[in-house]
Write a structure and sequence with these properties.
With 362 residues, the chain is an alpha/beta fold. The two termini are 12 Å apart. It contains 13 helices and 13 strands.
Length: 362
């Protein structure tokens, strides 16, 4: 019988940066249920906003280090204590519009923070594999109808996107200059627009829709015709975990960049995603903003995921309608009973793991 992804991670030592964030929280929950020994390294959840990490009690059962990536002494100490076999690097300033307000801080966190992490990795002899999570926005966006492939050039119009392109180049330089010769297999992962229960970040479409619906008011929607590769948070996380396993098992063969996105037909405009969410939760009401206002954001973005399908065996497990239904179900449940966050999260995680295990997608 083929070993499942969760079975493979049982007992393995994993360091997750950004573990207090939205994606990091779901990843910690998965690894903890799988029986991995997890150390998290991140800033504290943002003050004044709800936190999935806190709501779901995810600090229990892991070693949680609250510190900045750019604090080298703290990072070295955490790395030495964790003695990880696998490093999953998710920590970032992840908001496009915030990057316009704080471009220097965005580059400092996303680029220099990654440099500090990879430099710390090369001092830690236990590490075998590193997955650096960048973004689908790392590509030079030319509003192409086709999905961007891993061979397309890096770029970025706004500070956030450019910082993610820089992160890709930085990781490649560390891999070739240092990590390859040390036997540390290092790859980058570029995911689509991730949605799901528990994202409370500012200026995020689904967060704004769910918050407004819970409060019984309409939500202002900007750029309704912008096309994005929407996917449930568990989809790319499965990709990161599969990539970490492949790096340990296959080494340099897979130490490169990888896309994890939905089928091209599932990348839809903002207005269509909003319509599907309104259907799933009639309380979702919207007002359309002038798409010409505000800072520049890409109009059309799709990812080509054929490489991950052919060489890793990764494919999306959820349709867009299922992604919307799972997301809305989480927020509605927590709106009705705030103490249910942990239970709903783990129920969806268990459902997803069973689905992918049964379909042979792990």
């Amino acid at each position: 019988m083929t070993q499942t992804l969760s079975d493979w991670y049982r007992g393995r030592r994993v360091l997750v940066t950004g573990h207090t964030g939205f994606k990091g929280s779901w990843l910690v929950a998965w690894l903890r249920e799988a029986g991995a020994t997890v150390t998290g390294y991140a800033l504290a959840p943002e003050a004044g906003r709800p936190s999935l990490f806190a709501m779901a009690g995810l600090s229990q059962g892991i070693e949680s280090v609250i510190a900045d990536l750019r604090n080298r002494a703290a990072l070295d100490a955490a790395m030495a204590s964790a003695r990880p076999e696998i490093v999953l690097h998710l920590a970032a300033q992840s908001l496009v519009r915030r990057s316009y307000a704080d471009p220097v801080g965005t580059f400092d966190t996303n680029v220099m923070g990654t440099a500090q992490l990879l430099d710390a990795v090369r001092q830690q002899p236990t590490v075998r594999a590193v997955v650096v999570v960048t973004s689908d926005k790392c590509y030079e966006n030319q509003n192409l109808e086709r999905g961007y492939a891993e061979t397309d050039p890096m770029g970025g119009h706004d500070p956030y996107s450019a910082s993610k392109g820089c992160q890709e180049l930085l990781t490649a330089a560390f891999r070739r200059s240092f990590l390859e010769s040390l036997g540390v297999a290092t790859a980058t992962a570029r995911a689509g627009n991730v949605i799901g229960g528990g994202d409370w970040s500012e200026d995020r479409l689904v967060t704004d829709l769910m918050t407004a619906a819970s409060a019984g008011r309409a939500c202002l929607v900007r750029r309704p015709d912008a096309v994005r590769p929407w996917q449930h948070v568990l989809e790319p996380l499965r990709g990161y975990l599969m990539l970490g396993r492949a790096l340990c098992e296959r080494g340099a063969e897979v130490a490169e960049g990888w896309n994890f996105g939905p089928a091209l037909t599932e990348a839809v405009p903002v207005r269509e995603l909003v319509a599907r969410m309104s259907k799933a939760w009639p309380s979702v009401q919207t007002m359309i903003d002038d798409p010409a206002e505000g800072p520049h954001e890409a109009h059309l973005l799709r990812l080509d995921n054929r490489k991950a399908a052919e060489r890793l065996g990764w494919r999306p497990a959820l349709t867009l309608d299922e992604t919307v239904e799972w997301t809305v179900r989480w927020y509605r449940a927590v709106h009705e009973n705030p103490s249910s966050a942990r239970a709903v999260m783990h129920q969806q995680l268990d459902d997803y793991r069973r689905r992918t295990d049964d379909a042979g997608l792990t």
